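User: Show me an example of a complex going from sequences to structure tokens.

Assistant: Sure. Here are the input components:
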Amino acid sequence: IDSEDDLLQECISSAMPKKK
Amino acid sequence: PTPPYLKWAESLHSLLDDQDGISLFRMFLQQEDCADLLDFWFACSGFRKLEPCDANEEKRLKLAKAIYRKYVLAGGGIVARQIKPATKSFIKDCIVRQQVDPAMFDQAQTEIQALMEDNTYPLFLKSDIYLEYT
């Protein structure tokens, strides 16, 4: 379950805008 | 130059295109107990960015299942309550048939986005959190 959460978190972060 | 917080009021996309805007919007949504809407929206965008190729097929399937289990599966979550039954069935079918298309969450994301545009985003612009920030 942990790794599934990590995967989700990584996915969410990958879609966030980068620091300007 | 226009301060970022004024740009946030132009459209939901302007808000979601700015890290500070996202943080503040998330604080507001947490207060309203619906931060999952935002996480789901970004999870859909992140999923779409994962290119289908042999090397990450397993990862994409695992991720699709994770998104499905956490947000779409009926468990009383806000996202699950807002997505149309037909959209949920479509996503479930993709997973059962192991056909994870980059666009498989697009319709669900559109539905959640419409909810944010019509509801939580206008409320955010009138909220104490936003007004105090400005």
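The lines above are the inputs; the final block is the predicted structure for all two components together. The longest helix of chain A spans residues 2-15.
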